[in-house]
Design brief:
mainly alpha
């Protein structure tokens, strides 16, 4: 049963988020590339800085932190409202009467699914974002494809990928646990479910921003 629930949550919380992450990452990468182009018009700046800036911006910040904030709104509110609805309609009470550990049955598969799949979302975001920057900077004629590709390859530090994935794992844990907590301890009616969903998104975003600073200080200082 736990296996089936985990696979269901992987599909619902993971695969269903690929499209929104890919679309947003594409436009984030495009905007970062164009802004870098327009702010490095000085002939002293080499053109490959656009590719380098896009690559590092997506890896270090946008694909992990900004994507996590987006998932906090999409996944976090979904988890809080689903569990909150089960609480106010007494479905959780029914599970406990049947001898089922309701917290483990409802929350653990969601936690496993997000921690397993969110790193893949981050990698997809990095790849799509860099591709969006490549298209934006080359299609509009601001630079040659060769310069952009050289910038992507220039002075690459593999540890940045590790740093991004570590942040993603922490953010996935925060989103799932905070949202599940808000939904699990709802009391009242449907109005309280909506408030719990809002609290889940707000608290998740605040903790993501806080831990973003902490992890950056610990890993990059």
């Amino acid at each position: 049963m736990y296996y089936k629930q985990t696979i269901r949550e992987l599909m619902y919380l993971g695969f269903n988020s690929v499209a929104i992450i890919a679309i947003i990452s594409f436009f984030m990468g495009a905007v970062v590339a164009l802004q870098t182009v327009y702010n490095t018009e000085n002939p002293l700046y080499p053109k490959y800085l656009v590719g380098l800036g896009t690559r590092d911006s997506m890896i270090l910040e946008f694909s992990s932190s900004v994507a996590a904030l987006i998932l906090a709104g999409k996944v976090g509110s979904s988890i809080a409202s689903e569990i909150g609805t089960m609480r106010v309609t007494e479905q959780i009470d029914a599970l406990e009467i049947m001898g089922v550990n309701s917290a483990s049955y409802l929350i653990l598969p969601k936690l496993i699914a997000t921690v397993l799949f969110n790193p893949f979302l981050t990698l997809i975001s990095i790849i799509v974002g860099i591709f969006g920057g490549y298209l934006a900077s080359t299609v509009f004629g601001t630079m040659t494809p060769e310069d952009f590709i050289y910038g992507i390859q220039y002075a690459f530090i593999p540890f940045y990928i590790t740093y991004s994935l570590v942040k993603t794992l922490v953010f996935a844990f925060i989103i799932t646990t905070v949202s599940a907590f808000q939904g699990y301890y709802v009391s009242g009616g449907s109005l309280e479910v909506g408030r719990a969903s809002t609290k889940a998104v707000v608290f998740s975003c605040l903790l993501i921003l806080l831990f973003n600073v902490i992890i950056t200080q610990l890993m990059l200082s």
